[in-house]
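Our collaborator T.R. sent over the components below with a one-line note: 'Predict the complex.' Nothing else. No constraints on interfaces, no templates requested, no preferences about which chain binds where. So this is a plain run: every listed entity goes in together, and whatever single assembly comes back becomes the starting point for the next discussion.
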Amino acid sequence: MEDNLSIPATKASFCSSCYTKVNEADAYCDNCGYPLKGTEIEQQNFITNRNVKEIDLEDYNKKIKSAGNALYWVAIACVLSGIILYATAAVDAEQKFATLITNLILAIIFIALGVWSRKKPFAALVSGACLYAIILILNAIQNPLSIISGIIIKIIIIGAFIKGIRSAIEAEKIKKELNID
Amino acid sequence: MTDIILQQDLPEEYVCIQCSEPIALNSRFCKHCGSTQKVEDEYTISGWNRVKQAALFYAFDIIICAIASFIDAFKTLTWSIIFDVLLAIIAITFFCDNWSKNKSLLKWPDFSFLKLLGYGAGAIVTSLIVSYCVGWLNHTIFSKEFYYYGFYANQKYAALIMIFFTAVMPALFEELAYRGYLLQNLLGVADHKQAIFITSFLFAILHMSFLSLFWLIPFALLLGYIRIKEKTLWYGVFIHFCFNLTVCVMELWKYR
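Returned assembly:
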């Protein structure tokens, strides 16, 4: 017992920047690099930098959210085009029905990815963007003119996906740095 | 007493890469000098650049597969061979782009014959079940039969050509492309689960068939998981080969 007492017991406290447990003897937080023993100015600078990153993170989260919404919009477009084709296309009933079912399944997949994008944005957005790209390419093969129809909306949706995926990567990086889960 | 317990609980100590003072495992920063403990090598290729490269790779694959499966003029044996070779070249090119990192996947660290046999048997059983279900669904819902053999039937060594192009080539190059290049690439951007899911989903939708989506995604998830667990491509290649070979053999036996 005596021997153990002679070693100064390292008291645990919390980092005032990222709130992980640190030892009082440490000069820096080993999770976020906060200068625990630094001067007031050093500490303030660190906190300011951290705040800037938090603002960036908010911005990225907005972009991720709108990309997630784009997935819902695509789902709605699938349902609508399925119904319109079912009502108007001049093909036999069986083929019409198959198109409708295909569109509904696609819509379900996009909705599922949209819901999932709130939790795991990177995987959901990459998957959704690729599925959307395949649909566009297959439509273009069947009818090359389909590329032009609604091209502005398509560009907006693709843009939202690309920004969302990029933001998801950056947000993940910042979250790791700031120790936010 | 409490102090003794505390000391035993202390994590294994590592040293700072800057000041060589002891630090705890998994520290992001040194607690003595404040320098970051990131290994620089990991960040030489940024996440976004990895995604862009993967997108280029996938775009090539989508276009080739879409042309091969939806334009009637290309539905000949010659063209299908050309497309298969193109896909193989793309897979090899992208895999070798980061050769120094990817080459370890081609090693087979702890080869186990029993494990290989187990995986192979599992693949054959799954293949039988899946092709029975898909055949039944195709027959009842779409009232049509689909088989690969018709494609090759009037060739001289039809059976051999068919086995080569539906069992050997896809097993080797799809694994190289998806479980090899793509999965390894995405692991630098996302965690294991997300990377496995993305590769599986992309692999499944590339086949451009609704019915196969339902068994391809679980199949690919399993392959991805095995590739991560075993740290080698070869088990995946073998499972994929057994799976496709079973389908081939069943068709040869049925239609010959």
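Summary for T.R.: Residues 51-255 of chain B form one domain.
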